[in-house]
Specification:
About 40% of the residues lie in helices and about 10% in strands. By secondary structure, it is an alpha/beta fold. The protein has a domain of about 100 residues: Rossmann fold, CATH 3.40.50.720. Strands 3-2-1-4-5 form a 5-stranded parallel beta sheet, sandwiched between helices. Strand 4, helix 6 and strand 5 form a beta-alpha-beta unit. The longest helix is centred in the last third of the chain and has 23 residues. The radius of gyration is 23 Å and the shape is extended. It binds NADP nicotinamide-adenine-dinucleotide phosphate and 2-acetamido-2-deoxy-beta-D-glucopyranose (2 copies). The site of one 2-acetamido-2-deoxy-beta-D-glucopyranose has 3 residues, from loops. InterPro entries: NAD(P)-bd_dom_sf, SDR_fam. It comes from Huso huso. This is Retinol dehydrogenase 12-like. Keywords: Membrane, Oxidoreductase, Transmembrane, Transmembrane helix.
């Protein structure tokens, strides 16, 4: 049979595979999820969201503010944090939203932040460890820790532990860690903790 474009375009296989694809997509489709449909009210509760100036963290903080919680945005940039603070207050009509600076890659910063929270807050009901980053450059912090590991794990781990007593006193309290499916691919090698023997995806 002679090859022709129209022959390829009108081949019945296209119809069959399009119908199969359509069915698969339909089967995979989940019902829409609307967090606002959940009626929980957080009046009287205090929440901290790290990395709350953008992305997932900002959305979580806005939702908690809508539910009337006292919300502390824990951000590393005064400027970006202030912009989010104003946006969240305006959209939620909740003025009980506050900004506290913290850089999760610095243990000293985390200690200072936790100290301020422990001094100033009467209770802490929700801690969302959301701040994090992937694809950071190969670098060490001034405290001698590998930058990605310090930012995503050591800082949040220290923070959680320093706030734990306050949270226990506020029981029932909740800690939420925002993670990544990529963690399945990792293995623990203690030599990595100080940046030794690490390979980075971007290394050539
Ligand atoms: N989106 C995804 O598909 C995905 C997938 C897997 C995991 N995650 C994880 O989910 C979390 C939120 O993701 P996202 O998409 O919302 O990310 P994003 O838009 O990049 O926001 C990350 C937030 O973390 C803050 N942050 C980063 N490093 C920080 C540090 N050293 N100290 C304090 N804050 C820091 C950022 O602050 P600045 O604005 O100042 O940089 C920002 O507020 C992250 O932990 C991310 O690793 C996301
Ligand atoms: C969340 O992070 C904290 C601090 O790193 C850790 O102690 C806790 O086990 C984590 N929770 C879960 C469910 O992984
Ligand atoms: C780095 O890896 C090499 C080879 O696996 C190993 O011999 C060495 O001990 C590692 N370095 C550290 C600090 O663990």
């Amino acid at each position: 049979m002679e090859w022709s474009w129209t022959g390829v375009l009108y081949h019945p296989g296209w119809v069959v595979s399009t119908v199969i694809l359509g069915l698969v997509v339909r089967m995979q489709r989940k019902g829409s999820w609307n967090p606002r449909a959940c009626p929980v009210d957080l009046t009287g509760k205090t929440a901290i969201v790290t990395g709350a100036n953008t992305g997932i963290g900002k959305f979580i903080a806005l939702d908690l503010a809508h539910r009337k919680a006292r919300v502390i945005l824990a951000c590393r940039s005064q400027e970006r944090g202030q912009a989010a603070l104003e946006e969240i207050r305006r959209k939620s009509h909740n003025s009980n939203v506050h900004l506290q600076l913290v850089d999760t890659s610095s243990l000293r910063c985390v200690r200072d932040f936790a100290h301020r929270i422990n001094q100033e807050e009467k209770r802490l009901d929700i801690l969302v460890n959301n701040a994090g980053a992937s694809g950071l450059p190969k670098a060490m912090t001034s405290e001698g820790l590998e930058l990605s590991f310090a930012t995503n794990h050591l800082g949040p781990f220290l923070l959680t532990n320093l706030l734990l007593d306050l949270m226990k006193r506020s029981a029932p309290a909740r800690i939420v860690n925002v993670s990544s499916a990529n963690h399945w691919r990792g293995v623990v090698d203690f030599s990595h903790f100080h940046g030794e023997n690490l390979t980075y995806r971007l290394d050539s």
